[in-house]
Amino acid sequence: MTIDKQLRDSISLGLSELYDIQSNSEDLTLQPTRKEFQGTHTFVTFPVAKKAGKNPQVIAEELGNYLTKNDPLTASFQVVKGFLNLSLHDNLWLEKLADIAGEPDWGQTPANQSMAVVEISSPNTNKPLHLGHLRNNFLGFSVCNILEAAGYTVKKVCIVNDRGIHICKSMVAYEKFGNGDTPEKLKVKGDHFVGDYYVKFNQEFKQQVREIVASGADQKEAEKNAPILKDAQQMLKNWEAHDPPTLELWQLMNQWVYDGFEITYKIIGANFDQIYYESDTYLLGKDIVNEGLEKGVFYKKEDQSVWVDLSQEGLDEKLILRGDGTSVYITQDLGTADLRYQDFQFDRLVYVVGNEQDYHFNVLFKILKKLGRAYADGMYHLSYGMVDLPSGKMKSREGTVVDADQIIEEMVRTAEVHTRELGKIEGLDQEEAQKLYQTLGLGALKYFLTKVDPRKRILFNPEESISFQGDTGPFIQYTHARISAILRKARTLALPFDFDAAAISELHPTERSVIYLLNEYPNRIAIAASEFAPSVIAQYVYELAKDYNRFYADVSIFNEQDTNKQQFRVVLSAQTARIIKDSMRLLGIDVPERM
RNA sequence: GGUUCCGUAGCUCAACUGGAUAGAGCAACUGCCUUCUAAGCAGUAGGUUCGGGGUUCGAGUCCCUGCGGAAUCACCA
User: Fold this and answer.
1) Nucleotide nearest to A468 (CA to C1')
2) Helix, coil or strand: residue A502
3) What ipTM goes with this model?
4) Is the CB of A397 under 7 A from strand B?
């Protein structure tokens, strides 16, 4: 039983015996005591004051007395207004630490038979990844790790947007300006190579529009009639008609992009259990249209287009199928939802997709519900905010994006500069040093993008590089490296990683707060999982690192005369390192042994 | 215009889902390396939580309203 649970039970019993108030121990408000007061757990007595017919402060006093007498955990208490601050016996914390040390899977919930499918990344194949994609990936993979830690079986899936007008634009531009160049020839990463033609397309398009406008047409007309756009639209038709040369070019260019993506994915540690291609799935969902019509959920207009009326649900009418029988985005998404369920029989299906599609997913989920899909209740749109620049939104077409490969490279280089400045590369060979820079650079970037509440937009200023101090990935990594040094020393001194809890009478406050946080770990994972929020873990591990550093500054380990205490502090350090490492793993971040 | 989300220190973010005197980091200033890694620790300064009402023992958090920002409302994806 957890400490919290035991305390709640005792409080519940106390309320019953003192005031004859029956309460469910789950419902009692027990919160962490603020740092400026003594104690670890605080019970707020205001809510029971009315029932007890006494003022909150009196209740706190009486309940405090009751607990010190009757509850085996409570050592002492302090009352501030209606707040009852409880201090537990230090021995309890010492035993807790020993428990944690003896529990190799601390934080991990045993598999609970639930299956979660998470859709991550979903790139377009006409341009390289940018910072926004990185947020998507980091968030998505972290959520997978967190769900796994919370007991889910997790399947990571990716749907590659490999067909459509966007890739046709790159293809047309390549035909026109490519001169038979290849990524190999130009020594350019494949995804960048193809992306360059997407940019070229838009330049040419703009040029043509200008010319048409100059010859007297209005802007809208010109944009519609630009020859290069017509070419792209024709190419899409050719593609849909399975025109062999078009398919060949399409495959060639997509492959270049995949080769490029693979390099980036490898660096950031992305991997998938299943990859869906839109070219395979874009026709799905048409059978669902018929099903909807039969069930009377959808209806047909005179021009044969199919619609759903969601005005009852507070939305509007929404097109499901065009009059000419071709699908729209949502048709396909209905189909892939069914396909996913066929493939995995998931309990939860999480879409990691930006908040610009909030409305779309709202519609999708409501339709599936109307169609009577039982799995619809388990669907969740993990909607995250955009990564914006000081100048506003990133736009691929206009080249105002922060490129993923470039920012990663910059972060790694910054890590190298910092490390060299601090003179911390002694004893590392070239390869180890390089690996360290990568660990630190990526750690800084991943932490930067996962520590913020997913819903909020992130402002990224390229002028100021991501920091390595304070609330950052490297700070936490540094704490781990520091502890590693202590553990190395403990090993050379042949200190046993074990201690006698009963022989220690009092804890230093910093020791107590570190153990308190170690004990909190499973709790935080549960919260992070239920909210699909890696930021919960990021905050936790920062807090843990911060508290440990406080302990490190205040308390000496190897100057301690009492060897049992020395051993206790080594164990405390070892467990902290372990939980830091594991928390960071949940965020997808590696931690070094030295830095 | 309708809908949804957001607005907290100069900047970037927290606040355990309604609890105490709203906390961290960056930037600024002051201390601390002959000691286990100073990418650290301690301290100073910094706030009308966008404005105005309401709900209650208690509101940054819930409700209403105004202001500001973002997204979306396509036979686009």
Assistant:
1) B39
2) helix
3) 0.95
4) no
